[in-house]
Fold this sequence. Notes:
The protein is of the alpha/beta class. The chain has 3 domains: 2-242, Alpha-Beta Complex (2-enoyl-CoA Hydratase, Chain A, domain 1); 267-429 and 467-499, 2-enoyl-CoA Hydratase, Chain A, domain 1 (Alpha-Beta Complex); 432-465, no CATH class. The chain contains 20 helices and 17 strands. The protein has helices at 2-16, 21-29, 35-42, 102-118, 137-153, 173-177, 195-202, 208-212, 214-221, 231-242, 283-290, 335-350, 368-372, 375-388, 403-408, 432-439, 441-446, 450-465, 469-473, 486-496; strands at 49-51, 74-81, 84-91, 122-126, 159-163, 166-168, 180-184, 189-191, 226-228, 297-299, 307-314, 317-324, 355-361, 393-402, 418-421, 426-428, 479-480. The longest helix is centred in the first third of the chain and has 17 residues, at 102-118. Bound molecules: hexanoyl-coenzyme A. Hexanoyl-coenzyme A binds at residues 96-97, 99, 129-134, 140, 143, 166, 168-171.
Amino acid sequence: MKDKLHRLEQLRKTALQGGGPQKVRDQHAKGKLTARERIDALLDPGSFEEFGMLVTHRSTHFGLGKQKFLGDGVVTGYGTINGRTVYVFSQDFTVLGGSLAEAHAQKICRIMDMAMDSGLPVIGINDSGGARIQEGVVSLGGYADIFYRNTQASGIIPQISLIMGPCAGGAVYSPAITDFILMASGTSYMFVTGPNVVKAVTHEEVSSEDLGGATTHATRSGVAHFACEDEADVMRTTRRLLSYLPSSCREKPPFKPYTIPDDHIRPRLDGIIPVHSSQPYDMRDVILEVVDPLSFLEVHKGFAENIIVGFARIGGYVVGIVANQPAHLAGVLDIKASVKGARFVRFCDCFNIPLVVFVDVPGFLPGTDQEWNAIITNGAKLLYAFCEATVPRITVITRKAYGGAYDVMNSKHIGADMNYAWPSAEIAVMGARGAAEIIFKKEIAESPDPEATWREKEAEYAQLFANPYSAAERGYVDEVIAPRFTRLKILKSLDALQTKRKEPPRRKHGNIPL
Ligand code: HXC
Protein backbone atom coordinates (compact mmCIF):
# COMPACT_ATOMS: atom_id res chain seq x y z
CA MET A 1 0.00 0.00 0.00
CA LYS A 2 2.82 2.34 0.82
CA ASP A 3 4.14 2.16 -2.77
CA LYS A 4 0.69 2.72 -4.16
CA LEU A 5 0.14 5.73 -1.96
CA HIS A 6 3.53 7.07 -3.01
CA ARG A 7 2.60 6.72 -6.68
CA LEU A 8 -0.66 8.56 -6.10
CA GLU A 9 1.21 11.28 -4.24
CA GLN A 10 3.69 11.67 -7.12
CA LEU A 11 0.92 11.90 -9.71
CA ARG A 12 -0.89 14.56 -7.70
CA LYS A 13 2.32 16.51 -7.25
CA THR A 14 2.98 16.43 -10.99
CA ALA A 15 -0.55 17.52 -11.79
CA LEU A 16 -0.35 20.43 -9.36
CA GLN A 17 2.74 21.75 -11.16
CA GLY A 18 0.72 22.52 -14.30
CA GLY A 19 3.10 23.40 -17.13
CA GLY A 20 6.09 23.53 -14.78
CA PRO A 21 7.88 26.19 -12.70
CA GLN A 22 9.12 28.27 -15.66
CA LYS A 23 5.64 28.51 -17.20
CA VAL A 24 4.23 29.46 -13.81
CA ARG A 25 6.87 32.20 -13.50
CA ASP A 26 5.96 33.43 -17.01
CA GLN A 27 2.31 33.52 -16.00
CA HIS A 28 3.05 35.51 -12.84
CA ALA A 29 5.31 37.87 -14.80
CA LYS A 30 2.30 38.81 -16.93
CA GLY A 31 0.43 39.78 -13.76
CA LYS A 32 -1.76 36.68 -13.98
CA LEU A 33 -2.49 33.97 -11.44
CA THR A 34 -2.37 30.28 -12.30
CA ALA A 35 -5.54 28.24 -12.80
CA ARG A 36 -5.42 26.79 -9.30
CA GLU A 37 -4.51 30.08 -7.63
CA ARG A 38 -7.59 31.58 -9.27
CA ILE A 39 -9.83 28.84 -7.97
CA ASP A 40 -8.42 29.38 -4.49
CA ALA A 41 -9.09 33.11 -4.77
CA LEU A 42 -12.64 32.53 -5.96
CA LEU A 43 -13.91 29.80 -3.66
CA ASP A 44 -14.26 29.53 0.11
CA PRO A 45 -10.91 28.37 1.56
CA GLY A 46 -10.41 24.61 1.38
CA SER A 47 -13.77 23.98 -0.32
CA PHE A 48 -12.53 22.93 -3.76
CA GLU A 49 -12.98 19.31 -4.85
CA GLU A 50 -11.24 18.52 -8.11
CA PHE A 51 -12.36 16.14 -10.87
CA GLY A 52 -10.22 14.71 -13.64
CA MET A 53 -6.85 15.73 -12.29
CA LEU A 54 -5.23 12.79 -14.07
CA VAL A 55 -6.93 13.19 -17.44
CA THR A 56 -4.57 13.49 -20.43
CA HIS A 57 -5.08 13.93 -24.15
CA ARG A 58 -4.78 11.00 -26.53
CA SER A 59 -3.17 12.78 -29.46
CA THR A 60 0.25 12.03 -30.95
CA HIS A 61 0.34 14.53 -33.81
CA PHE A 62 3.01 17.23 -34.08
CA GLY A 63 4.95 16.00 -31.05
CA LEU A 64 1.95 16.08 -28.74
CA GLY A 65 2.67 12.45 -27.75
CA LYS A 66 5.66 13.78 -25.81
CA GLN A 67 3.74 16.68 -24.34
CA LYS A 68 1.24 15.13 -21.99
CA PHE A 69 0.22 17.10 -18.94
CA LEU A 70 -1.97 15.69 -16.19
CA GLY A 71 -5.27 17.55 -16.27
CA ASP A 72 -4.86 18.56 -19.93
CA GLY A 73 -4.79 22.28 -19.32
CA VAL A 74 -7.98 22.75 -17.36
CA VAL A 75 -8.78 22.37 -13.65
CA THR A 76 -12.39 21.33 -13.00
CA GLY A 77 -14.52 20.57 -9.97
CA TYR A 78 -16.82 22.12 -7.43
CA GLY A 79 -16.57 24.15 -4.25
CA THR A 80 -18.47 26.78 -2.34
CA ILE A 81 -18.87 30.55 -2.45
CA ASN A 82 -20.21 31.91 0.82
CA GLY A 83 -21.26 28.36 1.63
CA ARG A 84 -23.18 27.78 -1.62
CA THR A 85 -21.99 25.10 -4.03
CA VAL A 86 -20.85 26.08 -7.53
CA TYR A 87 -19.12 24.17 -10.32
CA VAL A 88 -15.94 25.67 -11.72
CA PHE A 89 -13.51 25.20 -14.56
CA SER A 90 -10.26 27.11 -14.81
CA GLN A 91 -8.11 26.96 -17.93
CA ASP A 92 -4.40 26.58 -17.27
CA PHE A 93 -2.41 28.76 -19.65
CA THR A 94 0.83 27.18 -18.41
CA VAL A 95 -0.19 23.93 -20.16
CA LEU A 96 -0.10 24.24 -23.96
CA GLY A 97 -1.38 27.79 -23.63
CA GLY A 98 -4.62 26.57 -22.03
CA SER A 99 -5.61 25.41 -25.51
CA LEU A 100 -8.81 23.41 -25.79
CA ALA A 101 -9.09 19.99 -27.36
CA GLU A 102 -10.96 16.73 -26.87
CA ALA A 103 -10.03 15.77 -23.28
CA HIS A 104 -10.00 19.39 -22.05
CA ALA A 105 -13.49 19.93 -23.49
CA GLN A 106 -14.79 16.67 -22.04
CA LYS A 107 -13.73 17.78 -18.57
CA ILE A 108 -15.62 21.06 -18.96
CA CYS A 109 -18.70 19.30 -20.34
CA ARG A 110 -18.70 16.90 -17.41
CA ILE A 111 -18.96 19.62 -14.80
CA MET A 112 -21.59 21.43 -16.87
CA ASP A 113 -23.68 18.25 -16.98
CA MET A 114 -23.30 17.76 -13.24
CA ALA A 115 -24.23 21.39 -12.55
CA MET A 116 -27.34 21.02 -14.68
CA ASP A 117 -28.38 17.80 -12.92
CA SER A 118 -28.00 19.40 -9.50
CA GLY A 119 -29.28 22.88 -10.39
CA LEU A 120 -26.05 24.70 -9.50
CA PRO A 121 -24.20 27.62 -11.16
CA VAL A 122 -21.17 27.16 -13.43
CA ILE A 123 -18.29 29.61 -13.30
CA GLY A 124 -15.78 29.37 -16.14
CA ILE A 125 -12.33 30.93 -15.83
CA ASN A 126 -11.06 31.49 -19.37
CA ASP A 127 -7.37 31.87 -20.23
CA SER A 128 -6.62 30.07 -23.45
CA GLY A 129 -4.94 30.25 -26.85
CA GLY A 130 -8.12 28.73 -28.30
CA ALA A 131 -8.53 25.52 -30.23
CA ARG A 132 -5.47 23.26 -29.78
CA ILE A 133 -4.07 23.50 -33.25
CA GLN A 134 -2.28 20.11 -33.16
CA GLU A 135 -5.51 18.24 -32.44
CA GLY A 136 -7.40 19.64 -35.41
CA VAL A 137 -11.11 19.12 -35.76
CA VAL A 138 -11.63 17.43 -32.38
CA SER A 139 -10.86 20.82 -30.85
CA LEU A 140 -13.68 22.37 -32.84
CA GLY A 141 -15.95 19.52 -31.81
CA GLY A 142 -15.00 20.16 -28.19
CA TYR A 143 -15.99 23.82 -28.45
CA ALA A 144 -19.28 22.93 -30.06
CA ASP A 145 -20.02 20.43 -27.26
CA ILE A 146 -19.58 23.30 -24.80
CA PHE A 147 -21.67 25.80 -26.82
CA TYR A 148 -24.48 23.25 -26.95
CA ARG A 149 -24.42 22.78 -23.20
CA ASN A 150 -24.21 26.54 -22.58
CA THR A 151 -27.41 26.91 -24.56
CA GLN A 152 -29.21 23.99 -22.93
CA ALA A 153 -28.28 25.37 -19.50
CA SER A 154 -29.35 28.94 -20.35
CA GLY A 155 -32.15 30.07 -18.06
CA ILE A 156 -31.83 26.95 -15.89
CA ILE A 157 -28.58 27.62 -14.01
CA PRO A 158 -26.61 30.87 -13.83
CA GLN A 159 -23.48 30.74 -16.00
CA ILE A 160 -20.71 33.24 -15.36
CA SER A 161 -17.58 33.72 -17.50
CA LEU A 162 -14.40 35.24 -16.12
CA ILE A 163 -12.00 36.31 -18.85
CA MET A 164 -8.47 36.30 -17.44
CA GLY A 165 -6.31 36.13 -20.55
CA PRO A 166 -6.76 35.59 -24.27
CA CYS A 167 -10.16 34.51 -25.54
CA ALA A 168 -10.15 34.60 -29.32
CA GLY A 169 -11.78 33.13 -32.38
CA GLY A 170 -14.80 30.91 -31.91
CA ALA A 171 -13.78 30.54 -28.25
CA VAL A 172 -15.57 33.82 -27.52
CA TYR A 173 -18.94 32.26 -28.19
CA SER A 174 -19.13 30.18 -25.05
CA PRO A 175 -18.79 33.24 -22.77
CA ALA A 176 -21.13 35.14 -25.10
CA ILE A 177 -23.92 32.62 -24.46
CA THR A 178 -23.41 32.71 -20.69
CA ASP A 179 -25.22 35.21 -18.47
CA PHE A 180 -22.36 37.45 -17.34
CA ILE A 181 -18.86 38.23 -18.58
CA LEU A 182 -16.30 39.75 -16.21
CA MET A 183 -12.95 40.88 -17.62
CA ALA A 184 -9.67 41.72 -15.88
CA SER A 185 -8.35 45.08 -17.10
CA GLY A 186 -5.00 45.00 -18.86
CA THR A 187 -4.59 41.21 -18.92
CA SER A 188 -7.61 39.91 -20.81
CA TYR A 189 -9.00 40.37 -24.28
CA MET A 190 -11.75 38.92 -26.45
CA PHE A 191 -12.11 39.10 -30.22
CA VAL A 192 -13.28 36.99 -33.10
CA THR A 193 -10.23 37.97 -35.18
CA GLY A 194 -7.09 39.51 -33.68
CA PRO A 195 -5.19 42.67 -34.67
CA ASN A 196 -3.11 40.89 -37.35
CA VAL A 197 -6.15 39.60 -39.23
CA VAL A 198 -7.87 42.95 -38.82
CA LYS A 199 -4.87 44.66 -40.38
CA ALA A 200 -4.70 42.19 -43.27
CA VAL A 201 -8.39 42.44 -44.07
CA THR A 202 -9.36 46.03 -43.30
CA HIS A 203 -5.91 47.73 -43.08
CA GLU A 204 -6.84 49.05 -39.65
CA GLU A 205 -4.05 49.20 -37.07
CA VAL A 206 -5.35 48.44 -33.61
CA SER A 207 -3.88 46.99 -30.43
CA SER A 208 -5.33 43.92 -28.69
CA GLU A 209 -6.38 46.15 -25.82
CA ASP A 210 -8.23 48.64 -28.03
CA LEU A 211 -9.76 45.91 -30.13
CA GLY A 212 -11.00 43.68 -27.35
CA GLY A 213 -9.76 44.70 -23.89
CA ALA A 214 -11.92 45.04 -20.80
CA THR A 215 -12.64 48.75 -21.26
CA THR A 216 -13.56 48.31 -24.91
CA HIS A 217 -16.05 45.57 -24.16
CA ALA A 218 -17.46 47.24 -21.06
CA THR A 219 -18.06 50.59 -22.78
CA ARG A 220 -18.25 50.22 -26.56
CA SER A 221 -19.52 46.77 -27.43
CA GLY A 222 -21.32 45.82 -24.22
CA VAL A 223 -19.89 42.29 -24.50
CA ALA A 224 -18.49 42.54 -20.94
CA HIS A 225 -20.82 43.23 -18.02
CA PHE A 226 -17.99 44.14 -15.66
CA ALA A 227 -14.53 45.60 -16.39
CA CYS A 228 -12.69 44.79 -13.18
CA GLU A 229 -9.48 46.44 -12.00
CA ASP A 230 -7.52 43.20 -11.81
CA GLU A 231 -7.95 39.50 -11.15
CA ALA A 232 -8.63 39.99 -7.44
CA ASP A 233 -11.41 42.42 -8.34
CA VAL A 234 -12.88 39.87 -10.77
CA MET A 235 -13.08 37.33 -7.96
CA ARG A 236 -14.62 39.81 -5.49
CA THR A 237 -17.19 40.93 -8.03
CA THR A 238 -18.09 37.34 -8.97
CA ARG A 239 -18.64 36.40 -5.33
CA ARG A 240 -20.80 39.46 -4.87
CA LEU A 241 -22.76 38.88 -8.07
CA LEU A 242 -23.52 35.34 -6.98
CA SER A 243 -24.97 36.60 -3.68
CA TYR A 244 -27.98 37.96 -5.62
CA LEU A 245 -28.61 34.87 -7.71
CA PRO A 246 -30.51 31.69 -6.95
CA SER A 247 -28.60 28.49 -7.74
CA SER A 248 -31.11 27.61 -10.45
CA CYS A 249 -34.44 28.65 -11.93
CA ARG A 250 -36.11 26.29 -9.46
CA GLU A 251 -35.21 28.54 -6.52
CA LYS A 252 -35.89 32.05 -5.31
CA PRO A 253 -32.94 34.43 -4.97
CA PRO A 254 -31.31 34.50 -1.50
CA PHE A 255 -33.23 36.65 1.01
CA LYS A 256 -31.07 38.47 3.54
CA PRO A 257 -33.01 39.72 6.60
CA TYR A 258 -32.97 43.51 6.89
CA THR A 259 -32.48 44.39 10.51
CA ILE A 260 -32.95 48.18 10.77
CA PRO A 261 -36.56 48.72 11.97
CA ASP A 262 -38.83 51.50 10.61
CA ASP A 263 -36.26 52.64 8.10
CA HIS A 264 -38.46 52.89 5.07
CA ILE A 265 -39.48 56.57 4.78
CA ARG A 266 -36.92 58.55 2.78
CA PRO A 267 -37.64 62.33 2.87
CA ARG A 268 -34.55 63.06 0.77
CA LEU A 269 -36.42 61.68 -2.26
CA ASP A 270 -38.87 64.61 -2.09
CA GLY A 271 -36.09 67.00 -3.12
CA ILE A 272 -34.54 65.11 -6.04
CA ILE A 273 -36.64 66.20 -9.02
CA PRO A 274 -35.45 69.61 -10.37
CA VAL A 275 -37.85 72.53 -10.74
CA HIS A 276 -37.70 72.54 -14.54
CA SER A 277 -38.59 69.32 -16.26
CA SER A 278 -35.79 69.67 -18.79
CA GLN A 279 -33.12 69.71 -16.07
CA PRO A 280 -31.19 66.48 -15.49
CA TYR A 281 -30.73 64.67 -12.19
CA ASP A 282 -28.93 61.45 -11.37
CA MET A 283 -31.31 58.49 -11.16
CA ARG A 284 -28.64 56.70 -9.10
CA ASP A 285 -29.53 59.08 -6.24
CA VAL A 286 -33.08 57.74 -6.36
CA ILE A 287 -31.94 54.11 -6.53
CA LEU A 288 -29.44 54.45 -3.69
CA GLU A 289 -32.04 56.11 -1.49
CA VAL A 290 -34.59 53.35 -2.12
CA VAL A 291 -32.45 50.20 -1.81
CA ASP A 292 -30.80 48.70 1.28
CA PRO A 293 -27.50 50.44 2.12
CA LEU A 294 -24.52 49.23 0.03
CA SER A 295 -26.67 46.68 -1.73
CA PHE A 296 -26.65 48.08 -5.28
CA LEU A 297 -24.48 46.17 -7.76
CA GLU A 298 -24.62 47.93 -11.08
CA VAL A 299 -24.30 45.77 -14.18
CA HIS A 300 -23.02 47.09 -17.51
CA LYS A 301 -22.15 50.35 -15.74
CA GLY A 302 -20.10 51.94 -18.51
CA PHE A 303 -22.28 50.83 -21.42
CA ALA A 304 -25.43 52.62 -22.65
CA GLU A 305 -25.41 54.87 -19.62
CA ASN A 306 -28.84 56.28 -20.49
CA ILE A 307 -30.30 53.18 -18.83
CA ILE A 308 -29.19 51.79 -15.47
CA VAL A 309 -29.51 48.11 -14.63
CA GLY A 310 -28.32 46.17 -11.60
CA PHE A 311 -29.11 44.06 -8.60
CA ALA A 312 -30.00 45.33 -5.16
CA ARG A 313 -31.90 44.39 -2.05
CA ILE A 314 -34.98 46.13 -0.71
CA GLY A 315 -35.85 45.08 2.85
CA GLY A 316 -33.73 41.99 2.19
CA TYR A 317 -35.47 40.94 -1.05
CA VAL A 318 -33.25 40.68 -4.11
CA VAL A 319 -34.55 42.85 -6.96
CA GLY A 320 -33.42 43.69 -10.46
CA ILE A 321 -33.42 47.46 -11.02
CA VAL A 322 -34.05 48.94 -14.45
CA ALA A 323 -34.03 52.73 -14.61
CA ASN A 324 -33.83 55.47 -17.20
CA GLN A 325 -30.96 57.85 -16.49
CA PRO A 326 -31.96 61.48 -17.15
CA ALA A 327 -28.37 62.55 -16.45
CA HIS A 328 -27.22 60.84 -19.67
CA LEU A 329 -28.81 61.71 -23.04
CA ALA A 330 -31.89 62.78 -21.03
CA GLY A 331 -32.62 59.10 -20.36
CA VAL A 332 -33.69 58.48 -23.95
CA LEU A 333 -34.08 54.89 -25.17
CA ASP A 334 -31.74 54.03 -28.02
CA ILE A 335 -30.53 50.78 -29.55
CA LYS A 336 -27.85 50.01 -26.99
CA ALA A 337 -30.02 50.94 -24.00
CA SER A 338 -32.86 48.78 -25.30
CA VAL A 339 -30.63 45.74 -25.77
CA LYS A 340 -28.94 46.27 -22.40
CA GLY A 341 -32.29 46.55 -20.64
CA ALA A 342 -33.84 43.61 -22.49
CA ARG A 343 -31.03 41.21 -21.65
CA PHE A 344 -31.17 42.17 -17.98
CA VAL A 345 -34.96 41.89 -17.76
CA ARG A 346 -34.82 38.43 -19.34
CA PHE A 347 -32.10 37.31 -16.93
CA CYS A 348 -34.17 38.42 -13.93
CA ASP A 349 -37.25 36.71 -15.31
CA CYS A 350 -35.34 33.43 -15.83
CA PHE A 351 -34.19 33.44 -12.23
CA ASN A 352 -37.25 34.65 -10.30
CA ILE A 353 -35.82 38.08 -9.51
CA PRO A 354 -38.55 40.74 -9.14
CA LEU A 355 -38.17 43.81 -11.31
CA VAL A 356 -38.27 47.34 -9.94
CA VAL A 357 -38.40 49.93 -12.71
CA PHE A 358 -37.83 53.68 -12.38
CA VAL A 359 -39.12 55.66 -15.32
CA ASP A 360 -38.01 59.05 -16.59
CA VAL A 361 -37.91 58.71 -20.36
CA PRO A 362 -38.54 61.33 -23.03
CA GLY A 363 -39.00 58.66 -25.74
CA PHE A 364 -36.90 56.83 -28.32
CA LEU A 365 -33.87 58.55 -29.86
CA PRO A 366 -34.63 59.97 -33.31
CA GLY A 367 -32.21 59.95 -36.27
CA THR A 368 -30.97 58.08 -39.30
CA ASP A 369 -28.28 56.31 -37.30
CA GLN A 370 -30.89 54.80 -35.02
CA GLU A 371 -33.43 54.02 -37.73
CA TRP A 372 -30.92 52.50 -40.15
CA ASN A 373 -29.45 50.36 -37.38
CA ALA A 374 -32.91 49.07 -36.47
CA ILE A 375 -34.13 50.92 -33.39
CA ILE A 376 -37.47 49.36 -34.37
CA THR A 377 -36.24 45.80 -33.92
CA ASN A 378 -33.96 46.62 -31.01
CA GLY A 379 -36.47 48.74 -29.13
CA ALA A 380 -38.92 45.88 -29.55
CA LYS A 381 -36.51 43.64 -27.62
CA LEU A 382 -37.04 45.65 -24.46
CA LEU A 383 -40.78 45.74 -25.04
CA TYR A 384 -40.87 41.98 -25.65
CA ALA A 385 -38.71 41.26 -22.59
CA PHE A 386 -41.05 43.17 -20.28
CA CYS A 387 -44.19 41.75 -21.93
CA GLU A 388 -43.08 38.15 -21.38
CA ALA A 389 -41.74 38.61 -17.81
CA THR A 390 -43.81 36.80 -15.20
CA VAL A 391 -41.82 37.79 -12.08
CA PRO A 392 -43.23 40.45 -9.71
CA ARG A 393 -42.99 43.77 -11.52
CA ILE A 394 -43.16 47.20 -9.89
CA THR A 395 -42.92 50.55 -11.67
CA VAL A 396 -42.28 54.03 -10.31
CA ILE A 397 -42.66 56.92 -12.74
CA THR A 398 -40.57 59.75 -11.34
CA ARG A 399 -41.00 62.24 -14.15
CA LYS A 400 -41.36 61.77 -17.92
CA ALA A 401 -43.11 58.79 -19.43
CA TYR A 402 -43.70 59.79 -23.01
CA GLY A 403 -44.92 58.03 -26.09
CA GLY A 404 -44.08 54.42 -26.88
CA ALA A 405 -41.42 54.53 -24.19
CA TYR A 406 -44.20 54.86 -21.58
CA ASP A 407 -45.70 51.60 -22.79
CA VAL A 408 -42.31 49.87 -22.98
CA MET A 409 -41.04 50.83 -19.54
CA ASN A 410 -43.02 48.25 -17.57
CA SER A 411 -46.41 49.89 -17.94
CA LYS A 412 -49.55 48.37 -16.46
CA HIS A 413 -50.74 47.47 -19.96
CA ILE A 414 -47.86 45.06 -20.56
CA GLY A 415 -48.18 43.21 -17.29
CA ALA A 416 -46.65 45.26 -14.46
CA ASP A 417 -48.22 44.45 -11.09
CA MET A 418 -47.89 47.68 -9.11
CA ASN A 419 -47.49 51.04 -10.83
CA TYR A 420 -46.70 54.15 -8.84
CA ALA A 421 -46.14 57.71 -9.99
CA TRP A 422 -44.67 60.69 -8.23
CA PRO A 423 -46.62 63.98 -8.41
CA SER A 424 -43.88 65.20 -10.77
CA ALA A 425 -44.81 62.51 -13.33
CA GLU A 426 -45.67 63.60 -16.88
CA ILE A 427 -47.46 60.77 -18.66
CA ALA A 428 -48.44 61.71 -22.20
CA VAL A 429 -48.09 60.93 -25.87
CA MET A 430 -45.32 63.50 -26.15
CA GLY A 431 -43.84 66.60 -24.53
CA ALA A 432 -46.22 69.56 -24.24
CA ARG A 433 -44.26 71.81 -26.59
CA GLY A 434 -44.14 69.27 -29.41
CA ALA A 435 -47.76 68.32 -28.86
CA ALA A 436 -48.92 71.95 -29.02
CA GLU A 437 -46.96 72.48 -32.23
CA ILE A 438 -48.79 69.62 -33.92
CA ILE A 439 -52.32 70.03 -32.60
CA PHE A 440 -52.38 73.83 -32.88
CA LYS A 441 -50.27 74.20 -36.01
CA LYS A 442 -52.89 76.33 -37.75
CA GLU A 443 -53.62 78.57 -34.74
CA ILE A 444 -49.90 79.16 -34.16
CA ALA A 445 -49.24 79.95 -37.84
CA GLU A 446 -52.16 82.37 -38.06
CA SER A 447 -51.52 84.07 -34.75
CA PRO A 448 -50.13 87.65 -34.73
CA ASP A 449 -47.71 86.43 -32.03
CA PRO A 450 -46.97 82.77 -32.91
CA GLU A 451 -44.51 82.24 -30.04
CA ALA A 452 -47.01 83.50 -27.43
CA THR A 453 -49.78 81.32 -28.87
CA TRP A 454 -47.47 78.33 -28.91
CA ARG A 455 -46.54 78.91 -25.26
CA GLU A 456 -50.19 79.30 -24.31
CA LYS A 457 -51.18 76.05 -26.05
CA GLU A 458 -48.16 74.31 -24.59
CA ALA A 459 -49.30 75.33 -21.10
CA GLU A 460 -52.82 74.12 -21.89
CA TYR A 461 -51.53 70.70 -22.97
CA ALA A 462 -49.16 70.50 -20.02
CA GLN A 463 -51.98 71.34 -17.62
CA LEU A 464 -54.07 68.51 -19.02
CA PHE A 465 -51.45 65.82 -19.55
CA ALA A 466 -48.06 66.68 -18.02
CA ASN A 467 -49.10 65.11 -14.74
CA PRO A 468 -49.90 61.66 -13.39
CA TYR A 469 -53.59 62.25 -12.83
CA SER A 470 -55.15 61.41 -16.15
CA ALA A 471 -53.28 58.06 -16.07
CA ALA A 472 -54.37 57.60 -12.44
CA GLU A 473 -58.02 58.26 -13.39
CA ARG A 474 -57.89 55.31 -15.73
CA GLY A 475 -56.05 53.07 -13.27
CA TYR A 476 -52.89 53.02 -15.38
CA VAL A 477 -51.07 53.99 -12.20
CA ASP A 478 -52.29 52.44 -8.98
CA GLU A 479 -51.31 55.32 -6.74
CA VAL A 480 -49.70 58.72 -6.93
CA ILE A 481 -47.28 58.82 -4.01
CA ALA A 482 -45.01 61.33 -2.33
CA PRO A 483 -41.46 60.30 -3.28
CA ARG A 484 -40.57 59.73 0.40
CA PHE A 485 -42.87 56.70 0.51
CA THR A 486 -41.32 54.97 -2.51
CA ARG A 487 -39.21 52.47 -0.58
CA LEU A 488 -42.08 51.60 1.73
CA LYS A 489 -44.50 51.07 -1.18
CA ILE A 490 -42.03 48.89 -3.07
CA LEU A 491 -41.29 46.85 0.02
CA LYS A 492 -44.99 46.28 0.71
CA SER A 493 -45.49 45.35 -2.94
CA LEU A 494 -42.64 42.84 -2.77
CA ASP A 495 -44.18 41.31 0.34
CA ALA A 496 -47.59 41.05 -1.34
CA LEU A 497 -46.16 39.66 -4.57
CA GLN A 498 -44.16 36.86 -2.95
CA THR A 499 -46.88 34.38 -3.85
CA LYS A 500 -47.36 35.62 -7.41
CA ARG A 501 -47.57 32.70 -9.83
CA LYS A 502 -48.02 33.43 -13.49
CA GLU A 503 -47.34 30.77 -16.08
CA PRO A 504 -46.26 31.86 -19.54
CA PRO A 505 -48.42 30.50 -22.38
CA ARG A 506 -47.54 26.92 -23.39
CA ARG A 507 -45.43 26.90 -26.54
CA LYS A 508 -42.03 25.78 -27.74
CA HIS A 509 -40.58 29.26 -27.32
CA GLY A 510 -41.46 32.77 -28.36
CA ASN A 511 -39.77 34.55 -31.24
CA ILE A 512 -38.12 37.61 -29.70
CA PRO A 513 -37.15 40.16 -32.39
CA LEU A 514 -33.41 39.41 -32.58
C1 HXC B 1 -1.72 24.87 -29.23
C2 HXC B 1 -0.98 26.79 -28.26
C3 HXC B 1 -2.10 27.48 -28.73
C4 HXC B 1 -3.05 26.77 -29.50
C5 HXC B 1 -0.89 28.85 -27.64
N1 HXC B 1 -0.26 27.68 -27.59
N2 HXC B 1 -2.02 28.76 -28.33
N3 HXC B 1 -0.79 25.49 -28.51
N4 HXC B 1 -2.82 25.46 -29.72
N5 HXC B 1 -4.16 27.35 -29.96
C6 HXC B 1 1.01 27.35 -26.93
C7 HXC B 1 2.17 28.05 -27.60
O1 HXC B 1 2.64 27.27 -28.66
C8 HXC B 1 3.16 28.09 -26.45
O2 HXC B 1 3.72 26.80 -26.31
C9 HXC B 1 2.28 28.31 -25.23
O3 HXC B 1 0.97 27.90 -25.64
C10 HXC B 1 2.24 29.74 -24.80
O4 HXC B 1 1.98 30.53 -25.94
P1 HXC B 1 2.83 31.85 -26.27
O5 HXC B 1 2.58 32.16 -27.69
O6 HXC B 1 4.24 31.65 -25.84
O7 HXC B 1 2.16 32.90 -25.30
P2 HXC B 1 1.86 34.42 -25.56
O8 HXC B 1 3.05 35.11 -26.13
O9 HXC B 1 1.32 34.94 -24.28
O10 HXC B 1 0.72 34.46 -26.67
C11 HXC B 1 -0.56 33.93 -26.40
C12 HXC B 1 -1.40 33.86 -27.68
C13 HXC B 1 -0.59 33.09 -28.77
C14 HXC B 1 -1.69 35.27 -28.16
C15 HXC B 1 -2.70 33.17 -27.32
O11 HXC B 1 -0.11 31.88 -28.21
C16 HXC B 1 -1.42 32.77 -29.96
O12 HXC B 1 -1.64 33.61 -30.83
N6 HXC B 1 -1.84 31.51 -30.05
C17 HXC B 1 -2.59 31.02 -31.17
C18 HXC B 1 -3.99 31.53 -31.10
C19 HXC B 1 -4.84 30.91 -32.16
O13 HXC B 1 -4.68 31.23 -33.35
N7 HXC B 1 -5.66 29.96 -31.73
C20 HXC B 1 -6.53 29.25 -32.60
C21 HXC B 1 -7.71 30.17 -32.74
S1 HXC B 1 -8.93 29.48 -33.67
P3 HXC B 1 5.25 26.58 -25.88
O14 HXC B 1 5.42 25.11 -25.89
O15 HXC B 1 6.08 27.31 -26.86
O16 HXC B 1 5.35 27.17 -24.52
C22 HXC B 1 -9.92 28.92 -32.54
C23 HXC B 1 -11.10 28.35 -33.16
C24 HXC B 1 -12.11 28.00 -32.13
O17 HXC B 1 -9.70 28.96 -31.40
C25 HXC B 1 -13.33 27.65 -32.90
C26 HXC B 1 -14.41 27.26 -32.01
C27 HXC B 1 -15.64 27.12 -32.80
